[in-house]
Write a structure and sequence with these properties.
Elements (H helix, E strand, L loop, with lengths): L2 H18 L14 E2 L9 E3 L1 H9 L3 H12 L5 E7 L3 E6 L1 H14 L13 E5 L11 H19 L3 E8 L4 H17 L17 H11 L8 H27 L5 E4 L8 H11 L3 E5 L15 E5 L10 E2 L10 H13 L4 E7 L6 H11 L6 E6 L2 E5 L2 E2 L12 H8 L1 H8 L8 E4 H4 L7 H21 L6 H5 L9 H22 L4 H23 L10 H25 L9
The structure holds one RNA strand.
RNA sequence: GCACCCAUAGCUCAGCUGGAUAGAGCGUUGCCCUCCGAAGGCAAAGGUCGCACGUUCGAAUCGUGCUGGGUGCGCCA
């Protein structure tokens, strides 16, 4: 289904045949032979660098190889022309039938068109969001949630078996702070003045937690010491926050397959076991760390800690797994958690972190490399900041949350579809501006609108054609005489459609879902362009007097719509049928 | 001080894991609706790809060293 892969294997077959005939020496490595669309369309439809890559190892002139290869390739009916150009490129022109057949393939496979088996069913775990269960999700989490979810969709489309996972940080001091904050709201629910001291969470969202605590415990916790209520209130509040977070995720259209709890790792021996595994590899020792250069912490004094020899796996310094008082650092349960993922049999791990966790990447990769004996690759995607804008100025603060803009604010103001698309219009490691005014604008300045408009146009054309008395069912369009799609402008759109399966593989290989968004923009642009050419050249209008010609043209339009829907599906954006 | 990320047109950004004359959108200039949705399209102008070496047949892309910006750097998570 991937045309580029098909042509590449055609090239490889030709090269192999040349070896059999003695035109090329045996034992050449073909892995660097690439088949790509040339940047400049004037160079043809496909280009291969085979002659340049093989010239040196074969001890032949690039031109000699290229000419022999061209002659071989010309025997295939799909190849209409093959010219040697530049330093040794072989430019191929494909027969129109090739492109026309792509349109048919898209119609037959529908939104399955472009699916790949590249992942070969390997198990990949995508861990994302993992927001602390101490409050509702805020803007900072939204981009990570969208990127993680879209990446998971993309990998599934490319043939991986994907697990979406959320790691609940419910084991540290921050959930005690949550408990104390909720307790003040509990007191408030009894008519007492809450004491929201410095360091507690001030947001309104804890008021319902206080009321729920009152409903459950009555006044039995009032005027009691922390040792009486802390654990219960902590569990109760954490549970309520997680319920809230699940709702937030649902509002964005994200659902997790697995929620893993940090707290659940304590007391089960899992942390000890993970650390012991490292110790058995001589990667754990007691030692002192050098003070950080530059700005030294004021209260620095050397302490002996339990350290992980992460430098053995490329980290800059060894990292503590225990604090000087002997308790675990945050890193220790995280090691155990990643060990758990390795033991569950994943072939690949992906973590989506905020950019402020950049300093954590090397040690986490070191831990996974050590614990999996370099079997399981860990890719960590760092998500850069989102800056919100409204009315030309930075948008800050939420009335509800007190200190931050919540996910709910964003989704209510922009809608889940718009939010998701915009969050995917930058690569993950570049900062992103999110302007509420621009993302809702109905113009070509707004990529969401532009792509949605293209899909609405497809539907509009299908409606008009039906009104004109044409049968535009997929079954009929699949059988259309696509040889009638002979105009260069139409072939150009078919070429773009042909890129889709390849783009899916490129995006999946690099774990970069944003590429899908950019591709859809280009495809939309092609459709808008073709549409407008119909203004000047009536022969390019989709609905013609001749029903067979109309069907072929509408088949092309429908194929564009299919790919847009497929791509939007990966991004998690609902295609609109009609603009209002 | 060290590590990681970023630097591409006036502005906002793509750029296929090394390919040919580096691409979009905005903005500027000039065009296109008696015609399937002009909420759109076409065209022009605009570049030492931060700088300097290096690897290569070939570098925006890979390596090294700089410059400028962001993030992080034991007893937070």
């Amino acid at each position: 289904m991937n045309l580029f892969a098909d042509i590449r294997s055609l090239v490889i077959d030709a090269l192999t045949a040349m070896q059999a005939e003695g035109a090329l020496p045996n034992g050449l490595d073909f892995s660097n032979v690439a088949v790509e669309p040339p940047r400049d369309a004037a160079h043809g439809d496909m280009a291969t660098n085979a002659a340049m890559v093989l010239a040196k190892p074969a001890a032949l002139q690039p031109r000699t190889i290229a000419e022999a290869l061209a002659a071989k390739l010309m025997a295939d009916p799909r190849i209409e022309g093959a010219d040697v150009a530049g330093p040794g490129f072989l430019n191929m022109r494909l027969s129109p039938a090739v492109w026309q057949s792509i349109v048919r393939a898209a119609l037959i496979h529908g939104t399955e068109f472009g699916k790949s088996d590249m992942g070969a069913g390997q198990k990949v775990n995508v861990e994302f969001v993992s927001a602390n269960p101490t409050g509702p999700m805020h803007v900072g989490h939204v981009r990570g949630a969208v990127v993680g979810d879209a990446l998971a969709n993309l990998l599934a489309f490319a043939g991986w078996s994907v697990t979406r996972e959320y790691y609940i940080n419910d084991g540290g001091a921050q959930v005690d702070v949550l408990a104390r904050s909720a307790y003040e709201r509990y007191r408030e629910a009894h008519g007492l003045e809450p004491e929201i001291r410095e360091g507690l969470y001030p947001g309104d969202y804890l008021i319902p937690v206080g009321e729920a605590l009152k409903a459950k415990y009555g006044d039995s916790l009032l005027d009691k010491g922390e040792q009486v209520w802390l654990a219960d209130v902590r569990d109760f509040a954490t549970e309520m926050m997680m319920a809230r977070i699940r709702e937030d995720l649902a509002a964005l259209g994200v659902s997790m397959d697995v929620y893993s709890s940090e707290k659940a790792l304590y007391g089960t021996g899992q942390i000890e076991a993970a650390i012991q595994t490292l110790r058995d590899m001589d990667l754990i020792y007691e030692g002192e760390l050098e003070p950080p250069k530059g700005k030294e912490p004021e209260d620095w004094e050397p302490r002996v800690q339990t350290l992980f020899r992460s430098t053995a796996y490329g980290d800059d310094v060894d990292r503590p797994v225990k604090k000087s008082d002997g308790s675990w650092t945050y890193f220790a349960p995280d090691i155990a958690y990643h060990y758990n993922k390795v033991q569950r049999g994943f072939d690949q791990l992906i973590d989506i972190f905020g950019a402020d966790h950049g300093g954590y990447v090397k040690r986490m990769k070191a831990a996974v490399a050590a614990l999996s004996q370099n079997r399981v690759p860990l890719d960590i995607k760092l998500i850069q900041l989102v800056k919100l804008w409204k009315n030309g100025e930075p948008f800050k603060m939420s009335k509800r949350a007190g200190t931050f803009v919540t996910l709910r604010d964003v989704v209510e103001m922009a809608g889940a579809d718009v939010t998701r698309f915009i969050m995917l219009t930058r690569k993950n490691d570049a900062a992103l501006d999110f302007d509420f005014d621009k993302v809702l604008e109905q113009s070509k300045d707004n990529p969401v609108f532009y792509v949605q408009y293209a899909n609405a146009r497809v539907n509009s054309i299908l409606r008009k054609a039906a009104e004109a008395g044409l049968d535009v069912s997929d079954a009929l369009l699949q059988g259309a005489d696509l040889a009638k799609l002979d105009h260069a402008a139409e072939i150009a759109v078919a070429k773009r459609i042909a890129e889709w399966p390849r783009l899916v593989e490129i995006a999946a290989r690099s774990n970069e879902p944003h590429r899908v968004a950019f591709y859809l923009y280009e495809l939309a642009s092609d459709l808008h362009g073709l549409w407008n050419r119909g203004n000047d050249d009536p022969s390019l209008r989709f609905i013609q007097d001749d029903p067979a010609t109309s069907q072929a043209k509408i088949a092309l339009v429908r194929a564009v719509g299919v790919v847009i829907c497929s791509g939007l599906g990966i991004l998690g954006v609902t295609p609109v049928e009609e603009m209002r």
